[in-house]
Amino acid sequence: MGRAIELARLGMGQVAPNPMVGCVIVHKGLIIGEGYHRKYGEAHAEVNAIRSVKNPGLLSESTIYVTLEPCSHFGKTPPCADLVVEMKIPRIVIGSIDPNVKVAGKGLEKLRKAGIAVQTGVMEEECNRMNRRFLTFHHKSRPYIILKWAQTEDGFIDRARGEAEFGQPTWITNDLSRIAVHKMRSDEAAILVGTNTALKDNPSLTVREWSGNHPLRMVLDRRGTLPVTSALLDQSTRTLVFTEVERESKPNLEYVKIEFNRGMLNRINSILHERGIQSLLVEGGKSLLESYMAEGLWDEARVYIGNTRFGSGIKAPETDWILDREEVLDDSLMRIYYKNEK
Fold first, then answer.
1. Is 46 a catalytic residue?
2. Cα atoms in the 13 Å half-sphere on the side-chain side of 159
């Protein structure tokens, strides 16, 4: 199962809205086949693993390990549970149960009715952690939300800048940290900033220092104050602008009218859920970040700490979170936190 999890992670950023799934086939203690879900719309992990077996005659004496319950319905591809039955594989070991109502135990039922020995819950916590975006989307009917910001050693996220200094971000961390941020963007389905960040930094919010897909760009622009020269309005990639004013949408630039009230963040979550967006990276300024924190609408936070000091400016959000882990990026650090639901 550990190897299946390693394989599944190779599909990160390529398989959404499907989950990441890895599969390993074992015959008498030896791995004879393995595969993972490589890209949305293409063959699932079980199919790729079975296809990789050089001697299919061994399948009837093998055990198949898969990180998630095999699908039982026709989608972009035929049901994987049917394939396992068809290939007469006698035993299957499953990491976690699929929360999608189209599957949710139906795959297990098919397998058991066919006389296959089914074991579940093996390395379940690890499998669930890997697919936390997918699970949050189905269990909570909203995207998995990651808060991200960079701060100085003395706890500031920005200098006190006047309009004359708008247009470029204030760099706090190093080149390696910026590469890590671009990789993170490529892993997530959508990214959001507020009006102030869009005006001050003029960010592109695209993936440039890593190979991967651009996230859906989103910006809050309540009164329609963003200039037409804003990088977020350049129509280069899909972008949503949440606003209270009437605006005509254009190719790759959609204006979504919402009320900027207390329920705004939940409304945005609902819109993203309706569109199948499973993860959201919030890269906004202090106000937007603290709004998500105040409403408890976050699942993970990544805080980059640069080897620099401002002495004064805009203070970073204050937290009392328990650190999960810390990664060294040359002379910068990345601290990762997960929300404690207990």
1. yes
2. 15
What are the backbone angles phi and psi of residue 12, rounded to the nearest 5°? -55, 130
Split at pLDDT 50, 70, 90, the class of 250 is very high
C-alpha gyration radius of the chain: 23
| String of DSSP letters for 153-204 | TTSEEE----GGGTTS----S-HHHHHHHHHHHHHSSEEEE-HHHHHHH---
CA distance readout (Å), 211 to 31, 208, 214: 31, 7, 9
> Backbone dihedral region of 239: left (phi > 0), alpha (psi from -120 to 50 degrees) or beta?
beta
Confidence check: pLDDT of 245 > 60: yes
* The one catalytic residue among 46, 69, 283, 300: 46
**Structure tokens that stand for 294 in this block:** 């105040």
What per-residue string of b and e applies to 24-60 under the rule 16 or more CB within 10 Å gives b? bbbbeeeebbbbbbeeeeebbbbbbbbeebeeeebbe
How far apart are alpha carbons 278 and 99 in whole angstroms? 14
Structure tokens at 332: 């910068």
Strands 156-158 and 253-257: unpaired
Distance between the two ends of the chain, CA-based, in angstroms? 27
96, two tokens:
């976690």
- Token representation of residue 30: 């030896």
Provide the pLDDT for residue 75: 66
Instruction: For residues 255 and 234, give the distance between their C-alpha atoms in angstroms, rounded to a whole number.
Output: 13
- What's the pLDDT tens digit per position in 290-300? 999 999 999 99
Cα 99 from Cα 83, distance rounded (Å): 21
Q: What is the pLDDT of residue 327?
A: 96
Phi, psi at 3, each rounded to 5°:
-65, -40
d(CA 298, CA 110): 36
Pick from 134, 122, 144, 140: nearest CA to 11: 134
What whole-number distance in Å separates Cα of residue 60 and Cα of residue 315? 62
